[in-house]
Amino acid sequence: MNKKARLATLTLATVMLTGVMAGCASTKNEGNNGNSGAPASSTNTNENNSQNSATKDSYEIAIAIPVFGPVPKDLVAVQDEISKIAKAKINATVKILPISIGAWGQQMNLMTSGREKLDLFFDFGQGYSPDVAAGKIIPLDDLLDQYGEGIKSQIPPEYLNSAKINGKIYGAPVYKDYTTGVPGVLMRKDLIDKYKIDVASIKTIDDLDQVYKTVKENEPTIVPLGAGLTVPSDKYVWYDKLGDRNGVLPGFDNNLKVVNLFETKEYEDYLNKMHSWAKAGYFNKDAATSQVGGSELLKAGKAFSYFIGLKPGNLESEMRTTGKELVFAPLMSNIYATTSDTLGGLWTISSNSANPERVMMFMNLMYTDKDIANLFIYGIEGKDYVKVSDTTIDYPEGIDAKTVGYSFQSWMYANPSIAYLMKSDQQEMWKLTAEANQNAIKSKALGFAFNAEPVKNEITALKNVTDQYVKGLETGTFDPADKLPEFKAKLKAAGIDKVIAEKQKQLDAWAAANQK
Question: What are the start-end ranges of the H helices in 172-291?
Fold first, then answer.
């Protein structure tokens, strides 16, 4: 797999675990499926007149989405049902373009640079600023004001404004839990019970030493900690990443002073801990190169635990995914809201679009129309799912997650909070998510989004360096005594100081403009 594809896949996994339990905004009903589906702008006569004028001619909206595994066999049928609704409401149809996640980065580069027919696409958080810098997506501010009132009513302003780069919004964040979640570790309950492990005593990563030692000594066929596609450092964070970790904000504050994470003692201590675990055999041996996630290893009976940033509904969804009863031990107490977590995924309008107005109308429906949400996420009622109650669903008899004809990762959908919940989901998930977004400690840099364009060459060079060292160091595969000084020297040579200076300059300007 080439580096671009590998980066896209690694980025996806980070987003997946942080975004899988998307929740509802505090402006919505607390229960799922409580929204009538009508956008907030439906009572605005002037906007209706403008929309009627703009929808005179039918338009096909080309939507690119990443897919895992085979393309769902019912995709075209789902697409056609969505088109019926869009045709009736905004005189538009949709053409869904499924792209394998392994080819996502390369294929999207080709589509956007080659001026292919493309209107709307899901943008992973780490690609957002580079896509703005490369001119691949357009600013949405005027379109949101004219056709996106439903989006604006669903996403709290402090989070929607987090998508601003140089004062303009280029993407609408997926509605979800916009926080770090509670950093911690998910463990198999059967082994917790078997070895009488006191979960309440696990409060720091140091407390895991004895737990992992017990598992290692008594369960020779599994590893204590599964890692690969994602690693513990994706979830165990004590700083605001400020987008890309090339300059971070320790403690989510630090008086807005950006520092080089890789030069800090905390980072070095963390690497030493990971290396001690690797030497003890606690990680799977291929953790630095594997494209398999910790949850998949646990599901396959090859791992005891994996790290996660736990959010409302995560425990239930992870148990459903792994098929195992799990126990969670928090390793930090505070939950923070950051721009990086807010921008884990966004919906953006391509610069290739010939009709951005119509595309924004459809985006608005994605955030407000429950019928489109249920089709996009679950497929066709009676075929891909059946209703259990007015608000919950399940697979049809004889069908399960592996055999269903249609599936879509709900964490990628614009606003899954207006859709049904699976009967195995945490039924209070959206209420809890709204509360988490409202009550989380706001990073002092919440709302700041770094514009990488002035240092794009350095960003590319730094990516090459981090691709070479980070996973090896952060899974303990590399000895930090040998590789950390080498890594830091190469970061210097690649221009990390210039990037940090630019990030500090932009952060200072943002703080002055926002009176931080």
Answer: 189-194, 208-218, 265-279
Q: What are phi and psi of 388, to 5 degrees?
A: -100, -35
**Which amino acid is located at 419 in the chain?**
A
Strands of 287-440, DSSP E: 303-310, 326-330, 336-337, 345-349, 386-387, 392-394, 421-422
How far, in Å, are 18, 150, 229, 460, 474 from residue 9 at the CA level?
Answer: 15, 31, 8, 17, 17
Give the C-alpha distances (Å, rounded to integers) separating 132 from 8, 123, 137: 17, 11, 6
**Cα separation values, 45 from 52, 146, 153, 224, 253, Å:** 10, 12, 17, 61, 44
Q: 441 - beta bridge partners?
A: 336
Which residue reads 């996660």 in tokens? 308
> Where does 292-359 show beta strands of DSSP type E?
303-310, 326-330, 336-337, 345-349
Q: What is the residue-level pLDDT of the chain in tens, covering all 516 positions? A: 333 333 333 333 333 333 333 333 333 333 334 333 333 333 344 445 556 666 779 999 999 999 977 899 999 999 999 999 999 999 999 999 999 988 998 999 999 988 899 999 999 988 898 899 889 999 999 999 999 999 999 999 999 999 998 889 999 999 999 999 999 999 999 999 999 999 999 999 999 999 999 999 999 999 999 999 889 999 999 999 998 899 999 999 999 999 999 999 999 999 999 999 999 999 999 999 998 889 999 999 999 999 999 998 889 889 988 889 999 999 998 999 999 999 989 999 999 999 999 999 999 999 999 999 999 999 999 999 999 999 999 999 999 888 999 989 888 999 999 999 999 888 999 999 999 999 999 999 999 988 888 998 999 999 999 999 999 999 999 999 999 999 999 999 999 999 999 999 999 999 999 876
End-to-end, the C-alpha distance of the chain in Å comes to 43
Residues with Cβ < 8 Å from 132, sequence gap 6 or more? Answer: 165, 170, 451, 453
Q: Enter the pTM of the model.
A: 0.78
Whole-angstrom distance, CA of residue 32 vs CA of residue 18: 20
Overall residue count recorded for the chain in this entry:
516
C-alpha 323, offset from chain centre: 23
- Other Cβ atoms within 10 Å of 133 Cβ, number: 16
